[in-house]
Amino acid sequence: MATIRKRGNSYQIRVFCGTDLYGKKVVNSMSWKPDDKMTERQIEKELNKIAVQFEEKVKNGIVTKIDNKIKLYEFCDIYLEMQKKALSPTTYHVYKSIITNYIVPALGHIKLAEVTPMHLQKFIYALSEKSISATSIKTYYAVVQSLFCFACKMGFLEYNPSVSTKLNFPKAAPTHTDILDENGIKKLLECLENEPIMWRVLIHLALCTGCRKGEIAALQWSDVIWKKNQINICKSLYNIKGEKGIKSPKNNTSNRIIAVPSYMIEMLKQYRNRQLEIKLSSEKEWNKHNMIFTDKKGDYISPYSISNWFKYFLQKNALSHIKFHALRHTSATILLASGTNIKTVSSRLGHSNLVTTNRYVHALIDADIAAAETLEQKLNFEKVGQEWDKQA
Q: 353: helix, coil or strand?
């Protein structure tokens, strides 16, 4: 209930809102000064009306008490605790790492309400001086913006310094998308024939579907739609500090059903039979998750294990070093080069929009330009043109 105190010619209305982080009472207050011509009865009636309205606003969160003492590092703890259930395990781990290693060391000592755009600009410059890439700096700053947006939403701030001013960021260097050409794919598949069947199937599936490694690692046999030659992509596997688990895909469009070639289904059938043989002969208890790709106990195989094996495989066979994710790029590029429309490719990859898929189109254009330059070097059109001029 609101309390009213008379102070000179005005009145102070106070509403108790609990305690802050330090155990002190949090009180919202406002002042009201009546018109000189009002009678005492009119003042009392209007004052009670204003007090009720003010208390209602406080209860509904329209009026908040700003804690000017809380420092950024303290608010970061609140933010992480509140976001733990809202974010996926992987995203939460990334945010926590960025906050702990970069944001708190640079800005944590400053009071939350006193952080200015200048502080944030200096933060960006400091990251740049540490030779952190422009892309990573923008990622770190996105977490900063998330922090301050949350602070405003929860009533800790009325002013958001992270969006009020356009700050200067280092320019990002042109990115190169690793894509295997026809010869590269041929060499990779030839070397793959000497590997265990699980890895042969896994790599072929990555090229056929363009799936992310987390999506591949999460596949269960129940996800294969045998009669329709399709695979249901509906989850992803994460591995954070040794803790494995299944989560929802990256975004809504990542939930998808992908058609695969008949040969891929045959490979999966052969591999399933082989897995059953291993399961029956195993002295260890086989995990009941019914995963397609497993370790020796039938348990999840982590995305990191996939990356590590692929790196070892490339080194062992003296193949060009590429990341496992390059198989996803390669799958998309093969489809686009063969005339598959970009919307279909985007749908197969689970992209949320066509912008992301467009980078593969740009890669094809770059490759086409490079091919033209190669032809010019090999055929020496300039010299041929000169010979034609003489003959003419």
A: coil
